[in-house]
Amino acid sequence: MKIYCVVQSSPWPATSGGAIRCFRLIQKLKRDHEVIVVLANPFDEERQRFMNGDGFGCQRRVLDSSHANRLADRIASMSIAKYRMDLLPGYRDLFRESLQRLVNEERPDLLWYYQSPSIWFTGVPTGVPTIFDMCDRESWKYALHARQQPLFRRLLIKADVPFFNAAELKRARQCDVVLMSNPDEAADLKAPGHVILLPNGFDFSNKPKIAPRDGKRLLFCGLLLYQPNIDGMLWFCKMVWPRVLKTIPDAVLDIVGRYDSRLDSLKSQRGVCVHGFVDNIEPFLTKSSCLVVPLQVGSGTRLKILEAWSNGLPIVTTSVGCAGLGAHDGETLLIANRPDDLAKKCVKLLQNPELGATLAERGFNYGKDSFDWETLYPKVDQAIAAALGNSQTAKVAT
After folding, report:
1. For 202-213, how does the pLDDT look when each residue is reduced to its tens digit (9 = 90+)?
2. Residue closest to 175 by CA, chosen among 191, 198, 196, 197
3. pTM
C-alpha cells in the first residue's frame, strides 16, 4: 500500500516529542507499506531541513504553495484563530491544490496527517481514505494557556477558543479515522467515524539497572521554546525551587533543552544550571535523582515522563504533567500541584533514595506494559483497517 504521511514540520531530526512520535509511526508504517513523507510548509528554512535531513529512507515531496489567498477566503477565516500561530487564516488550505494534484498523479492508497497544522494547510483531498493523527487538542492547550495571560489577552483568547475548537473539529470530521494520545481528549472529541486512542510511546526494550540514587540533582528536560514548558519552568524556579533549597541548600537543578532569552533570568539563580540543547541526554538521566515536570498548562501526554520511566528515573510532577498516562500519586511517580507540596515531594525523593528506586521500578514496569511502541503498534494497523473500511463515507464539505 502507498501511504502519504503529510506533515507541517520535518520529522527529522527526531529530537522533540512531536517529531519522535511522527518518526516512530513512520517507522511502523514502513514495515508493511510504501511511505512517502509530504511537507506542507511555506518557509524555506523548514523545507531545507526536511530535504537535507536523513529521512530514514523515505521518499519525500515538498508541496508548492498554490492557494491564492483570495480576499473572500481571508475574510471568511478571519474569525478563526486570530491569535494562534498554528491556525492563522492566511495558511488555511494554502497547499490544497498542490496536494490534490499530487494525489491525482500518484494515486496513494491512504493519507496520514500528522497534527492539526498539516491538515489546516492542505485540506482533505477527495477520493482517498484519511487518518488524522491529531495527537492532542491544540484548542484545549490554547484555552488553558489563557489562564496565565494578562486580562486583555485572556479575554481575546476566550473569544477565540470556540472558533479554534470548531476549526479543529471540522477538520476531524472530514477524516475517516482520528487518533488521539490522551483518553480524556479522545472521549471529548465527538467526531463521526472512528476515534482511536493511540498514546505516545517509548522504547522499553532494555530495562536499566534500577538502584537508589544518592545525589542531590533534579532534572528538567524539554523544548524550552514551547510556551507551556517555559511557563512551567519559570513558575517552578520562582515558587518551588527556593522552598527546596531551604531544606537542601546544596541541591542542584539541571535544565536541559533548547531555550531562548525568556529563560536568561534563571542563569543567575542559586543552584540552577541552564545547559541548553545537548546531543546526549544520557549523562543527565544517569546522575539525576529525579525528573521534575512542573507543567501548569498542556494537552496530550508528556513524552519526557515515558523517557524517565524507561530509564529508571524517579519523577515528581503536577497533575497536568502526567495527564492522560493513568498514573497515580505514590505508585509510579509523585504528584503535587501547590508550590509547597511540590517542593516537599522533591525533597522527599532527594532524602529517600529507596523510595525513588521503588517508584522507578514500578514506573518502568507500568510503562513497558502500557506505552512500549511494540505494544502500541497494533493500533496503527487497526486505524488503517478502519480508515479503509470507512473510505466510502461521504466527506463533509470543506
Report:
1. 999 999 999 999
2. 191
3. 0.85
